[in-house]
Amino acid sequence: MNGPHDMGGEQNYGPVRPEPEEPIFHAEWEARALAITLAVGAHGRWNIDMSRFAREALPPALYLNSTYYERWIAALEHLMVKHGLLTAEELSSGRPDGGAKATPPLVAERVPEVLATGGPTSRPARRVPQFGVGDRVRTRNLHPATHTRLPKYARGKTGEIVLAHGPHVFADASALAADAPAEPLYAVRFAADELWGPDARFRGSVTLDLWEPHLERT
Amino acid sequence: MPHDDHHDDHRHQIPPDPALRVKALETLLSEKGLIDPAALDAIIETYAEKVGPKNGAAVVARAWTDPAYLERLRADATAAIAEFGFGGRQGEHMVAVENAPGVHNVVVCTLCSCYPWPVLGLPPVWYKSEAYRSRVVIDPRGVLGDFGLTLPEETEIRVWDSTAEIRYLVIPERPAGTEGMDAEALAGLVSRDAMIGTAVVEAPA
Question: Does the structure's ipTM exceed the value 0.90?
Fold first, then answer.
């Protein structure tokens, strides 16, 4: 989806402002928002790519006017209603509808183990990858209305594969359906002037992780 | 798709105070038995107190002082980092990228906020900001300038945009004059920003 989240190369957002001695959370609610998101995610009704898509799909003005954890909460509320964990009425009233009480899938004792395991996305190879390290590839000119990891600034560009990561769950597909197939994933390096033309103001490159469906042979 | 049903409720209202909204949500989810509040406490404790850039600094210092470890880090960073017991969520697939004379690496996630949690903890606000995400891929020298870092004109800058589940850890250059320091002392020099690439490691004054 071409949305405000895809901001690589956008201009006029001002300087980066590092905060000395920055706290890990700027308010208690931010910590709770993070933890609620992880704990509700443990129900397994959606995957991390669906979560990211839900955040990106906030209306553009709301996305840009929200802080980071406000985006998380807005997306989480949407996902919970969409996937049947809450009703819209419960969300607006704040009161349970009186159904049977559920059992939380993530209890405190299991938190260390769950966080230490994570969710690896590598998968066994199903076929020989089409490309290898050193190959020149061009990114396709794709504009799906759904989730994609091929940012606007890197579409239709020629680069070189510098790492072959092996097959990983293809996020563009995984954001739409569970059990999406894996595709070979590569780190593809693009020279600064290939991306930015005469306005490239540095000597160097930008490297992105892209899946085979994003790429074509030059 | 996408989202005929999506978020229309937010379009015509001012978002409520986030603290009240999150509190109400937590209460509702607890009453429905969908979350265990103690699990929330355990998650917060993990990232507030246990996991942070000290982990990454230990990895960097070991890479500087143990050539065999550096080789393992180059061959399989996820496994080498797991030797310290660091791994899991948002660090399932690690790659270490090394600075060298004339080469400087810097990491971003332009699409969201992907960041190697097991070695650096949760990302700072600036890493998630529009200013950083938009600009570091087109004007990395300008961004480094915002951090007070000016690299020689001839230095090649390699920006890594974390667009998949691979997480990148920058291995900064070991500063001159630290030959007598052991790994523990060296780790104390390595800042979070140096492992993202918006700083370098300086020798102690």
Answer: yes
Amino acid at B28: L
> What gap in Å lies between CA B31 and CA A58, rounded to an integer?
27
Q: Which of A48, A65, A209 to mutate to test the interface with B (most CBs of B within 10 A)?
A: A209
Kindly tell me the burial class for residue A56, based on how many C-beta atoms sit within 10 Å of its own C-beta (0-12, 13-18, 19 or more): buried
> In which element (H, E) is residue A3 found?
none
Between CA A12 and CA A138 the distance in angstroms is 29
**DSSP alpha helix (H) spans, B83-199:** 117-120, 125-128, 130-135, 140-146, 183-187, 192-196
| Contact present, B169 and B90 (Cβ < 8 Å) | no
| Distance (Å, whole) CA B68 – CA B76 | 12
The answer to whether A154 touches B137, Cβ cutoff 8 Å, is no
Q: CA nearest B121 in A: which residue?
A: A24
pLDDT digits (tens, 9 = 90+) for A124-164: 998 999 999 999 999 999 999 999 999 999 999 999 999 99
